[in-house]
Structure formats: C-alpha cells, structure tokens
Predict the 3D structure of the following.
Amino acid sequence: MINKVPSNRQNIPAKVSQSLIDQFGRTVDYIRLSITDRCDFRCVYCMAEEMTFLPRNEVLSLEECARLVKVFVSLGVSKVRITGGEPLVRKNALWLFETIGKLDGLNELVLTTNGSQLEKQAQDLKNTGVKRINISVDSLNPERFKKITRTGELDKVLRGIQAAKLAGFESIKLNTVIMRGVNDDEILSLVDFAIAQEIDISFIEEMPLGDVDHTRESTFYSNTDTLKVLQSKHPLTASNETTGGPARYWRVTNTHTKIGFISPHSHNFCESCNRVRITCKGELYLCLGQEDKVELMPLLRNHLKNDQPLIDAILGSMAIKPKGHDFDLKRAEPAVIRFMSHTGG
Ligand code: SAM
Ligand code: SF4
C-alpha cells in the first residue's frame, strides 16, 4: 500500500470566529461521525480484501463520541450523520443514538448503514429519534452482491430494508455506487426496486479514497451516464430540493421516488459544502478529499472535564477548511490515502 504521509496541519491560527463559518463564508452545520472503522462487509470500492483495523484504545469511546456531538451541537451544528465502517456493528451503538437523540438543538439525527443489522435494530433506532436512514445497496443479484461486498448477504439486507419501512422512518434512501463492468447493467432495476418500495435512491460516483484492489479509472462510471440510462426509460423532472448536501435530485414522474446524484467528478459540489467529518479516531477532517485535519482525541482525553480546548480547536479549524477536493482518477495513487470506511461516508 502506498505510504503517503498526510499533511497533518495542526498549526491552527488563533481562534478566528465564535461560530462555525469558514474563510469562504460557508457555515458548517452538519457533521458526519464515524463510530468505527470496522465492518462486516468488504465492499470492493471501499476496502481492500485484507484490512487492518484500529486497536480499540485508538478508537473514540461511545462516551467520547457523545461528548463531541454535544460540543458541536452547542456550536450550531443541527444535523448529525452517524456512519462508519458499519456503525451498527459497534457494540452498544444504540446507547449513542439514544444519548444524542435527546440533545436540544439537534434537528436531524441520521444514519448511513449497509443494512445488515437493520432487521434487528430498525425499530430501536427509530425510537431513539433517527429520522432518515441511508442503506447501501449496489446490486439486487445475490451472487453479485456477495462479489461486490465480498461477505454480504443480499437477503439479509432486503429484510433490513423491510424492517426500516415498517419502523416508519421519515425517509429511506438507497445509496448505490455504479462501477463500470460490475453493476452498470443494474441502474434501471435498482431504480425500479426503489420505485416499487416507494423509497429514494442516490447514485454516488466512485471516489479515489484508499488503495483498493482495482484502479479507479477502470471502473469509474459517471453520473452523467447513469442519468442518460435512466432518462431512456423514466420521465424525470429536475428538482431543486436539497438535503443541504451535494446531491442533485430528480423526481420520477408519478412515483414517490426521487433520485439523487452525488457527482464529485462531474459536478464539483464544494461551493456549498456545509459539513465536516470526524473519524473514529477523533480526527476532524475539514474535507473528504483533502488531508487537512485536527486531532480531537488528545483534547478529549487530556481535558476530561473542560470542553474549552476542544471548542477552541473546532472553531480554529474553520480557518483551514479547504476550498474544495482534488479528485483526479488518472493519478496512479489515490487522491486520499485513507479509506472511506476510515473517514466515514
Ligand atoms: N457501512 C455503511 C454503508 O456502507 O452505508 C456506512 C459507511 S460507507 C463508507 C458510506 C457510503 O460510502 C456507502 O454508501 C458507500 O457506498 C460509500 N463509499 C464507500 N467507499 C466509496 C468510494 N470509494 N467512492 C464512493 N462511495 C464510497
Ligand atoms: Fe463496509 Fe460500508 Fe465500506 Fe461497504 S461501503 S465496506 S459496508 S463501510
């Protein structure tokens, strides 16, 4: 694996602002928190076949996660997405959802999951206040699903989707990464499935995060092509709906389904970026596609009863939020050496 040393910029200028506004005037009101780097799947675009996971003491405890979220919410964050790795394989993850679900000022608690644990956990998650849920599904063919995830059982995930529907989340959305020559023949069937289930679906372009077992250029399938395939069958209307994120949405006429496109390559979404990411190691990444980060774990562990150093570091980090990502598929090495499962999707 290429060993690129990240430019760990810890020299943060003195506090610049009392709120989460960066140097380009973007307000950060959304955090994505990865609560584990572990996962029961090994999706080919996300992980290498052989992965080394972090030792337990290098991962934020759930109490530390809860404390971090509380501090961010006190600084104006109103939306939190819990992700991973697979967040629902973390023991006692439900405790975290229950704890942060009660925070005043947190309007949206949402989750991204591979769906493998939803059959058991969907109702409990709904009861903690989780509003919306994204479930990753890249194929409806069991053998292909196994090939893409390397370990996953499609049936279990489909039962998870039914459990989520029964639990009554405000919205359920499938997340799909289309890869050329792997699942590009399923674009229509995945959307037909979403329409039949009366749920939404978003297509995410494959991003060069982490050193996986194929070259990204060989499998890249642009959302422009995905949209063309869909327009050949479905009447679609562009929508200006937004979830405050990078997705552009289209409505499928006469259905309950909207289709999102997250296209970091064909459409740069950085101008309206409202988010930061926190890894399960407590690294605050200011951009998914750049290395600028602030280490929050030492501040959590060295100041057990005093949040001020943490608050100062978070406010100061706004000064190093980059203007945008720098994805280039033609580069031999990944744009960013860390895997999506490390940063949190
Ligand atoms: N395990 C959960 C899941 O799969 O939904 C949550 C974490 S996963 C890292 C979050 C999202 O990132 C998933 O929808 C996955 O498809 C997407 N993802 C992972 N690696 C990616 C990559 N290299 N490019 C684009 N999307 C990726
Ligand atoms: Fe696991 Fe999600 Fe990555 Fe797949 S995309 S390996 S389910 S973290």
